Amino acid sequence: MFAYAHPTGNLISVGDHVLWSYINPINDLNHYACVMISKKGSEPKVYIQSDYAASDFMLSNNRDDIYIIERKYLQDSDEFKVRVLKATVDDQPKVIWNWFKDDYKIGEGGFFMVSDDEMVFSKYPEIFSLKKGEHPKKHFEFHQPIKRIRAIENNLILLLADSTCYLVEKNGTILKQWDNLIDTSLKNAPLNRNQIFDADYCKGELLLSYWGRRSFDLIDAKDHRQIIMQQTEPLTPHWVAFLNNEKWLFSSQLSFNGSMPKPHLIRLSKQNHQDIIWSTH
Question: Quick check: pTM over 0.85?
Fold first, then answer.
């Protein structure tokens, strides 16, 4: 069912640009992945297009450097292969790790590059490190199963568990945690998945994509939580990213009836003004 095929990927900000992964064309049943790019005042455009059907892109950045994991599925051998590309917003990506077999769905739970030769990624419930040409190893032990990992400001890491989010140092030392992020009394969650799908952190604020409640939430530096955007069926929140004082909020129209997902990307200003950046409905 193609509604399950997306969202795979994520949304990141680099300088004054935002990049995200999707498929192109949007209604393509062969699922040729792409990376889209946009900045304030310009229309979104395709930044990179995969040459492979049943493909996906996952994104990360270190300041101005953009790292892209491209994944393809080989039906004949029933296996996934991935490669790693490096780029900037002004230069086309270059391959820095060539294709290799992927048994971990690397990047699907988030990743970041320690260097061009080493990455850290999340594969539920563990966090792994992987050096180029080697096999993954546990990066550090953590007391909770982790669903998603994200490198953020000041060399810190954001870890997303089932109902808790942690701000940690590179060695796993916890600096802050947010508990009870899930409303356990909630009913009628999309696909019965009452979960936080994605999170980003900037200057004391935690931005959440709450799939189960169809909402985007913000927890400020004083731990006050508010819904900054409530959506209704069929829109389902996926990804979030801070860009300076803006919040970029990505959701899709998911009907779960066999039709392809349709994207819906909003830019929310500091004054809570909403601009629809990319939408097909």
Answer: yes
